[in-house]
Design a protein that fits this description.
This protein has 407 residues and is an alpha+beta fold. It is built from 15 helices and eleven strands.
């Protein structure tokens, strides 16, 4: 497989990774804007705009878009994260041109019809309600909202019922004009694809040209944590416990160390929390620990669902294991097992077209190497002392926040 890159005169970056043995192609437009860029906009604008991109262009109605994609046997979708928005199409390798034509039309020539806006607002409001009704999503969102308390615009990519209802067509057009310019967009194609043909097609399109701007998120302002547990009473058969603390940002060696520490605690069936909470005590079916964040923020988080009468028992184990990382060096054996598990999980994921598409996009957007060999070597280089030192800076009961949903 070969990776090729071309930057067009208008600033649009095109990246392809061709695999001659593939029978399908994934095409993605990545826009460097997400839910955290809304300090000066109604919260939820980036996500709502993503929905509206599918509702009609200068030459296609919303029905045209869906029918033409079905006609070429493709699949179309989009997604909004904290720092990026993507629009993608899966097609058979011989239909990539049709998929790219539809995507390009949507991303650059959407018209945001007023009547479609009112209909789609109802859809997004239902999406917000669904997230609030789902105890896992509710707990996850509340945890991050509290950790991001100094940045209300970062509480949720979905926005609120009030903020989404207030978005006007003019605001959408302004947001689109500001961020959806070629210099702020990357087109990534993985699978079976001809780089020169993609460049030729996109170069033939009349795309808008905006002023090159460096859109960067400010670093997260942290708030004091004290081991508090916020209890949201709900009539449920299981109590769900989420926890979080601040951690290193993406793109740093510390983030890799934090990821390995989290994997050691709750990333596999041999991890400490899985063994202590599930295997040895039967407290829960699911328990996991991980890291999340981007280049402006980082968190160490986790989740367990258990009986309300035994939730405190599980919570004490969780606190003890994070504290243990600060006191004791991880044994050579456990460290090697965690490294092998984490590397294997990452390498297996890279066989997926979507994972490779995301990796290539993030490498370009943020200068972070996600090459499998580089990542593997970074993980292999981590020592037990590295984990203990990082834990001493970020972990401990007085640096944690717990969200308990249920009884």
């Amino acid at each position: 497989m070969s990776v090729q890159k071309t930057v067009l005169p208008n600033g649009l970056t095109i990246i392809t990774e061709n695999n001659e043995n593939a029978i399908a192609t994934m095409l993605s437009y990545w826009v460097k804007v997400g839910g955290h860029y809304e300090a000066l906009h109604p919260y939820g604008t980036a996500h709502f705009l993503e929905h509206m991109i599918f509702k009609g262009t200068l030459t296609r109605t919303k029905d045209d878009i869906s029918e033409q994609m079905d006609e070429c046997g493709g699949r179309l979708n989009g997604g909004t994260s904290s720092d990026s928005t993507r629009y993608y199409a899966f097609t058979s390798y011989d239909k990539w041109h049709e998929g790219l034509d539809i995507l390009t039309d949507m991303v650059f020539r959407s018209t945001f019809p007023e009547q479609e806006m009112e209909l789609e607002k109802k859809v997004v409001l239902e999406e917000i309600k669904r997230a609030e009704d789902d105890p896992f999503q509710f707990g996850s969102r509340l945890l991050l909202e509290k950790l991001r308390a100094a940045h209300p615009e970062r509480a949720s990519n979905l926005g609120t019922m009030q903020s989404v209802s207030s978005i006007t067509r003019e605001q959408l057009i302004q947001f689109h004009k500001l961020y959806y310019q070629p210099a702020n967009i990357i087109l990534v194609s993985t699978g079976r694809i001809d780089h020169a043909a993609v460049v030729e097609y996109v170069s033939s399109q009349e795309l808008p040209v905006g002023e090159p701007m460096d859109f960067k998120l400010d670093a997260l302002q942290t708030v004091p944590l004290s081991g508090e547990t916020i209890h949201i009473e709900r009539p449920m058969k299981q109590t769900q416990l989420h926890w979080g603390m601040y951690g290193p940002v993406t793109g740093t060696r510390d983030k890799r160390i934090a990821s390995l520490a989290s994997h050691l605690l709750g990333g596999s069936q041999s991890s400490r929390l899985y063994r202590l909470i599930r295997s040895e005590r039967g407290l829960a079916y699911t328990v996991r620990a991980s890291t999340v964040g981007n280049t402006s923020e980082g968190f160490l988080i986790g989740y367990v669902a258990t009986d309300s009468q035994r939730c405190l028992e599980a919570q004490h184990i969780i606190i003890e294991e994070y504290d243990r990382l600060t006191r004791e060096l991880v044994s050579d054996k456990r460290l090697q097992i965690a490294k092998n598990s984490m590397i294997g999980t990452y390498l297996i994921a890279q066989d997926n077209k979507e994972a490779r598409n995301s990796s290539l996009a993030y490498e370009e957007m943020y200068g972070i190497s996600l090459d499998p060999l580089v990542v593997s070597e970074e993980i292999k280089s981590i020592t037990a002392a590295d984990i203990q030192e990082l834990a001493a800076r970020y972990c401990g009961q007085d640096r944690m926040l717990f969200i308990r949903v249920g009884g």
